[in-house]
């Protein structure tokens, strides 16, 4: 489907689902604790499709907010969750440990991300989801920990059930911090173990198909890094899409930054997930998408 055509029809027919009530801030249907740590409990903020039943077997999206491993909130991805739920996906924004609140390091962020995915798979029947159609995603540092779940980064919680895979079936990354080398982002924070936590340096043939949304004026991650990531994925025979948005800075995809760019970037995500079979194609009537 042509991207320009899709975006125009999305806008015209209001196919962004719950985005038809843009004046109202979205909120989750429920919050479920997935992990108890020494620093406190961590919850999933869950959005369900209309009419969802526990007997359903829907695709599921597990999203991680940004904030430099320091701060941020699950609310930062409520809009994306709302949209995905309107399209039939069970979507959730994840609480994970943060330096400002929990006095933790990026290692704990990665551990929590892997724990969250394992918990979701383990509780697939309770959630009404297909554990084999699990999408992980995130922005900035959240993009880093999402990418870490799809690569061979070595950190995981000792108490996790290792029989359950933490690797997602697809990755959706918004300006991700996926290079932690001396030339990348956050090196001073992770230099003692950067090779073990940098997704760029832990790609494998098992890394899932990935779509990356990226602004060319991002001051934290360079276009060169984004293109290098795509090349490494291609060399491994793994599908990797890179959508470059000219002139856009870090975090440009967020609704509060630009509703228009939010719609366009979520349109890229929609097409990617539809191509994987995780979303039903938008129906056509008289030649138009409905």
TrEMBL record:
Secretion signal span: 1-23
InterPro entries on file: AB_hydrolase_3, AB_hydrolase_fold, GDXG_lipolytic_enzyme
Entry's Gene Ontology molecular function annotations: triacylglycerol lipase activity
Any Pfam family: Abhydrolase_3
SUPFAM superfamilies on file: alpha/beta-Hydrolases
Start and end residues of each Alpha/beta hydrolase fold-3 domain: 62-253
Keywords: Hydrolase, Signal
Assigned protein family: Belongs to the 'GDXG' lipolytic enzyme family.
Protein name: Acetylxylan esterase
Gene: axeA1_4
């Amino acid at each position: 489907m042509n991207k320009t055509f899709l975006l125009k029809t999305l806008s015209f027919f209001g196919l962004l689902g719950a985005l038809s009530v843009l004046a109202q801030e979205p909120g989750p249907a429920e919050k479920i604790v997935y992990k108890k740590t020494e620093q406190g409990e961590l919850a999933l903020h869950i959005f369900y499709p209309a009419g969802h039943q526990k007997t359903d077997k829907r695709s599921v999206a597990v999203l991680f907010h940004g904030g430099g491993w320091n701060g941020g909130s699950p609310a930062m991805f409520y809009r994306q969750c709302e949209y995905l739920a309107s399209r039939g996906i069970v979507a959730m924004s994840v609480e994970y440990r943060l330096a400002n609140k929990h006095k933790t390091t990026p290692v704990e962020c990665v551990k929590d991300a892997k724990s969250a995915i394992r918990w979701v798979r383990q509780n697939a029947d309770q959630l009404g989801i297909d554990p084999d159609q699990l999408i992980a995603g995130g922005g900035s540092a959240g993009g880093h920990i999402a990418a870490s779940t799809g690569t061979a980064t070595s950190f995981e919680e000792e108490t996790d059930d290792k029989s359950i895979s933490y690797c997602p079936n697809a990755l959706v990354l918004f300006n991700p911090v996926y290079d932690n080398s001396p030339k990348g982002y956050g090196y001073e924070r992770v230099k003692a173990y950067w090779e073990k936590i940098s997704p760029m340096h832990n790609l494998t043939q098992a890394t899932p198909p990935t779509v990356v949304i990226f602004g060319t004026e991002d001051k934290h991650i360079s276009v060169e890094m984004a293109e290098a990531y795509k090349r490494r994925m291609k060399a491994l025979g793994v599908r990797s899409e890179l959508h470059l948005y000219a002139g856009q800075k870090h975090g440009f995809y967020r609704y509060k930054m630009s509703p228009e760019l939010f719609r366009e970037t979520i349109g890229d995500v929609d097409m990617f997930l539809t191509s994987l079979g995780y979303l039903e194609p938008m129906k056509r009537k008289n030649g138009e998408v409905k």
